[in-house]
Amino acid sequence: MTTQIIAQIKEIQNAYLYELLGKRNVVGIGVGYKRSGGMLTDELSLVVSVTRKESPTALSARDLVPRVLGGIKTDVVETGVIRAFEVGPRDRWRPTVPPGVSLGHYRVTAGTFGCLVRRGGEYFILSNNHVLANMNEARIGDPILQPGPADGGSSDDCIATLADFVPLDFGTAPSECPYAQLATDLLNYVAGAFKSSHRFQAIKQTPGVNRVDAALARPLSPQLVKGEILYLGAPIGTGEATLGMRVQKTGRTTGYTTGVISQIEATLRVQYDNRSALFTGQLVADGMSKPGDSGSAVLDMEGRVVGLLFAGSEYTTIINPIGEVLSALNVELA
Fold it and tell me: Residue 261 to residues 193, 300, 316: CA-CA distances in angstroms?
């Protein structure tokens, strides 16, 4: 029966998704248990996440979230602005680096070494795009430092190089059309002739929808890294997160923490500096993380990896389902 209700709510979610995302303060929609008096109930609902709860009298009619949609109750929860996590100090680990500690691309602040994965016979460090690939700005082969630069990591602390990443889609990308590039070159020539400091760039619209924030780094030596996650030990496999599941992680900022999955199949806007990206099919847990925990592997209490932490707010934690991550990068858990 629960599976049927969840399927029904997902249909309603898909039908009203962009209408709800267009409302003031709304940053996400997912399937979860309704809260009453600050406590979770056993009633499934369409959970609408907002940056800040406001009195209905302060909102226009178009910005009000209906109490019921398609026969399903809604539940408005305050999450704050959801941001990609990437700050906070942690230590240098040698001679062997375990998952759960600080690392990052040489031009970012720092994030977390999630876990070890493999492709064929080769092992890789798994973390986020924004931790290892600098939000698409990095190049394959770039140095990955442990600890990350924000924690004092320098060129002497390189333990790996960027091997692969899933590009983040922000809704636009440089245009590959030769005619658009020709027009841009002409406009820039004219701008230069008039001594303008402004320049034009040809861009194209992209779908703007993401499933994962994920990347791989290739260790300089297999002996530099190990599979046992700090405080958690070696994962016993992968699993699927479910509503109400208790989960755990080790991250560079908050260390070992636990939480509860409060939403599944969530669609959310995530802020990356001055840009935002839309993510679908996400897991939402309570506030079990802080900036710098991005890239942490999220496990169930039996030790199965269920997700890759990548964003959150003061009140909430956002997680990519691990199956989506492994599939997107064509790897398996080591």
Answer: 58, 10, 10
Give the total residue count for the chain: 334
Confidence band of 201 (pLDDT split at 50, 70, 90): low
Instruction: Give 249's strand partners.
Output: 257, 298
Q: What is the pTM of this model?
A: 0.87
Does pLDDT of 257 surpass 80? yes
Residue 99: other Cβ atoms inside 10 A: 26
- CA dist., res. 299 & res. 250, Å (int): 9
Tell me if 169 sits within 8 A of 187, measured CB to CB.
no
pLDDT tens, position by position, 101-118: 999 999 999 999 999 999
In this prediction, residue 177 has a pLDDT band, given cuts at 50, 70 and 90, of: low
CA angle 287-293-296, nearest 5°? 100
Angle formed at CA 156 by CA 97 and CA 91, multiple of 5 degrees = 45
User: Rounded to an integer, what distance in angstroms lies between the CA atom of residue 109 and that of residue 149?
Assistant: 5
Cα 322 to Cα 41, 298, 304, 326, 333, distances in angstroms: 27, 9, 10, 6, 10
Say if residues 110 and 103 touch (Cβ distance below 8 Å). yes
pLDDT in tens, 57-82: 999 999 999 999 999 999 999 999 99
Residue 6 has which token pair? 């969840």
What CA–CA distance (Å, rounded) separates 152 from 284?
Answer: 31
Q: Which domains are assigned to the chain?
A: 2-78 (no CATH), 84-168+209-333 (2.40.10.10), 173-202 (no CATH)
The answer to whether 11 and 265 are in contact (CB under 8 A) is no
Which of 108, 132, 303 lies closest to 212 in space, CA to CA?
132
